[in-house]
Amino acid sequence: MAHSRYDAVVAGGGHNGLVAAAYLARAGRRVLVLERLDHIGGLAVSTRAFPGVEARLSRYSYLVSLLPGKIRADLGVRVELRRRRFSSYTPAGDTGLLVDGEDAERTAASFAAVTGGTGDHEAWRRFYAMTAHVARRVAPTLLDPLPDRAALRALVGETAWRDLFERPIGEVVAERFADDTVRGVVLTDALIGTFADPAADLLANRCFLYHVIGDGTGDWNVPVGGMGALTDALADAALSAGAEIRCGAEVLAIDPGGEVTFRDSGGEHTVTGGHVLAALPPAVLARLLGETPERPEGSQLKVNMVVARLPRLRAPSVRPEEAFSGTFHVNEGAEALAAARAQAAAGRIPELPPAEMYCHSLTDPSILGAGLRESGAHTMTLFGLHMPARLFAAPGAREEALRRTLASVDTVLAEPIEDCLLRAPSGEPCVEARTPLDLEDEAGLPGGHIFHRDLSWPYAESSGDGPWGVETAHPRILLCGAGARRGGGVSGIPGHNAAMAVLLS
Ligand SMILES: Cc1cc2nc3c(=O)[nH]c(=O)nc-3n(C[C@H](O)[C@H](O)[C@H](O)COP(=O)(O)OP(=O)(O)OC[C@H]3O[C@@H](n4cnc5c(N)ncnc54)[C@H](O)[C@@H]3O)c2cc1C
User: Of 401, 418, 448, which residue sits at a domain end?
Assistant: First the structure.
């Protein structure tokens, strides 16, 4: 291939790379996207995970909150993000806590049944009114140049700033809520993919913040058609604006001057970009630049399942269709979370792994083939907490973690989850587990960190951050994946901001 020049070369065809490519191409820039795998999407993909089973599972990420409506509108992305009526259900003994977004009385009755006279329902309403206020204030800043700390603090206001940005979230939750179940439900948002102690470590606050500010509401919605539908729509936006996307093209080296060496089936090639946008993890970018990479550590067990029927619950007052359509919390009380964290910190797989489950096909049946739909089958996604990468070096650790996680699920159901699993035509049950190390092998995620690196505050912390939070030590090289400041999750924000850094420079 002749040596080609582009205005921008985007290394990595995940959703952020596609967003950046679409913005740049729409502005008339000549853009090339290079993706190592034979498909685009990175961690935002849908897959038929079980041969012969017509279920398109969002294999890694599954819910969308952080993607701003402005990016969807700018790029003409028409994927529907469908709201879930029930935000969560948490089994507690023979009853459970149901948070029903459309029936305040039922939610109040559920709080009363689980927490008695603790006043936690009122505390819950006050707390989430505060996070909603922060969401409305912070979300619009995420697509602008980085504010400094003082400016964001002034926007957020003193009480919310203290409770969400300065005091450990575990301390705030313990002060505001009395009931262990309620405390745990709140704390899970501080621990997704993040091995942190919420009582001491402000990393948990950052994780919490990104879970409650998405697009100004903090709602977590189901992308209709699955994550793959969102990625396809972003790729269409980039392609129709004139971007070139090459899959099966692994970037081997990036030069600070803008030269990018990659390999595809035809051999090795070099192209030059006026800018190079690294839509891949910072540790991978460091390696490609010949620098010393950091070593992040992810912490989760992702389990994808297809069930022949929804499992029966212990509580008669809630239907499985209600309980599983939102976030179904499993052994995620505050004390259970702390015990699991202590065990994992000591190098042991938690005895009673905390986890949450979601049935997306209840909200979006289109991801199932007609036969499965009619039979009552459903997808079931599980995200396990406090499963840091360090636990999985030993042989058999994945199988042990899965066994304990399913046993943990069984403690809150009226029947074993294994009895509900659909069997593929091969006779195998439809269940697959992914540890952080699996994600490293399969998706190229250093340490299996789902946000590419630990989440950062959405404000400039030093002069090195640059105006958009995407700048690197090399003026032509910009970070445009989840590891940028204000990155993490399926948001497109780093992609947008890297494109703006190019267009407005
Ligand atoms: C199990 C799991 C569950 C999650 N759940 C959610 C969720 O429900 N909601 C949410 O918002 N977020 C979730 N996340 C996080 C979210 O998916 C990611 O933070 C986000 O998708 C990252 O997008 P990205 O485009 O920045 O990077 P990626 O999606 O990681 O894309 C990077 C791309 O770069 C490519 N690449 C790597 N090296 C090279 C190379 N040398 N040359 C060329 N290409 C290369 C990769 O193949 C990949 O396609 C989850 C993540 C995981 C793993």
Answer: 448
